Amino acid sequence: MSPYDYCREKVALPGSSLYYSLLFVSPALREALTALHAAAEEFRAIAEQVREAGVARTKLGWWAEEIERAACGAPRHPITRALAQPLREAGVDSARFAGVLNAFVAHHERDAYGTFAELEAHFDRVADLTGCIAAQLCGFACTETVDASRSLGVGLALAELARSPYRPDARRATDLPADLLAECGVSRADLGATPTTEPVRRSVRKVCEAARLRLRDALEAMPVADRGAQRPRRALAEMMLAQLDAIERGAYAVSERPAAITPLRKLWIAWKHRG
Prior knowledge:
Layout: H1 3-11, H2 17-21, H3 27-49, H4 53-71, H5 78-90, H6 95-109, H7 116-138, H8 144-163, H9 178-184, H10 198-221, H11 224-227, H12 231-249, H13 263-272
Helix pairs in contact: 1-3, 1-5, 3-5, 3-6, 3-7, 4-5, 4-6, 6-7, 7-8, 8-10, 8-12, 9-10, 10-12, 12-13
């Protein structure tokens, strides 16, 4: 299995939003962005699924070392083998990964998020990967594109939380913050209950609203001069907005009716952004 195939099987199988968002870009950019998202997924999985704090810190520390090895031209892992050359060609400073990995260490060490602002601050830190570095791989001329891309990355993370607010197998059953749970009246028994309780629906609706605001702001703030280069990111954002609309049409009943948009709708969105 090639490094790219490894990354593709992790995050961009046919039918996925990422797969369709990259359908009409060059093979080199497709491979680079697929590898970047695979790295983000690898980091997230460690932070959310490894239960022992020491083990999680060791694993994330290994990734920090692996990123440095990749920067020096000696990657070992399939993800970094796929990512090393694109990062070098785009001039991405490998030190930026350290900040993202530290954010995931802090994420793992939390028992819960107290406020929505704290949760968004975490998403803002990790959006340096799936937002800003992704934008750099695509290429941009205007510095405003960086801020728009960070907002896009936060919006993607919020949209994923809205789709799956309850994860029984994760270290924390939910990342919905305490202030939102209290505001919406969500109890521990509500989480994962089927059918979706009204308090959970209210909390998911608020996350959807926050995600939609971030994604729309990102699309509107993207400078016209860079919209062509950033078309795969814009396509992915539009797919997530369509996903949020599907959740709304399903009355936010995410426990029993996982909302999804059809592959044909994803293909149409990707085609619109094909350049």
